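yo, WAT1-related protein is done. seq:
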Amino acid sequence: MGVGKVLNDVKPYLAMILLQVGFAGMYIVAVASLKRGMSHFVLVVYRNLVATAVMAPFALWFERSIRPKMTLTVFIKIMGLALLEPVLDQNLYYMGANLTSAGFASALVNVLPSVTFVMALILRMEKVRLRSVHSQAKIVGTVLTVAGAVLMILYHGPVVPFPWSKAQHHGGAAGQAAAGSGFLTGTICVIVACVAWSGFFVLQSNTLRSYPAELSLTALICLMGSLMSGAVALVAERRNTQAWVIGFDTRLFTAVYAGIVCSGVAYYVQGLVSRQRGPVFVTAFNPLCMIVTSVMGSIILKEEITLGSVIGAVIIVFGLYALIWGKSKDQENQVADVSASGGSKGGAAAGELPVTLGQLPNGNGKHELGNTRGHVFDVETPATNNGHY
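structure:
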């Protein structure tokens, strides 16, 4: 009895640790394939085709009786979602990771919650009370993540030595100087990818008000993303038809791995864990992916980690946790307010965007999240008719 309880308590931690290792593996194999000449345009197409093949059967079966009717407005929104996430976000992220490093990109992408928070403020989907400690935590967290990102961009410093990588650091400074312009371009690509991803979350929450079928929406986004990114790839690689040939090699493995692990398995595992522990628990493990990616990148890809990247990443993590803490307290207060008022104000209380990576409402008093990179969360919320974000 005692052993069974311990195992049940350990399962969520083990699941999230393994999932973050899976995400880190995706970043590593993707960058490895890109550095070997694979086109990021083609990678995005194949990845979303695999994700569509994985998600479509589940959507067709589990939502066969609840899937709403498709309208022109919903279809246009799905096109917008496909443009923001598979086309813009994934292409720019892969391009940025290829020009910088897997470790740097995975660290910089932790500014995403802050970008989403700022975008929500601009669109008046998020409220800030300056006298509230929780709102102050969100503001401080946003400032810290931005400061950490700026530090990572502007200051490199000496290379941090690791026992397994001492032999590869002798030419680090010269290599960084030669790749300065590429590094800046890659950094801009990752930042713009975060902005596109945040816009995806905002539009996604709006779309689910009129199309509350998460699996079907995810499958449709992957499908439309495959078609749209395919059109982009045909134009970008029109003079290089060999870019589409992948064979049974690392390129095929990358596309299948990213599509299944980061869009299929992750959707189920994160949703399952979030039902038990909530989105804050899931989000708290995100920095682990950054650490694992940096270590694996230095071993497998021979990437160098500079002091500026380490300091900046630490500041970003502190900012991330401050922002998550402030948002989690807001959610606790919202639940308490709804309980006290009998749920009559649930729609107003649930009107804010989450800081977690892609929380979506499913119309049954829950928030689920799904996107084509694999971040999926599900958490109980006040039961309302319009309880979105």
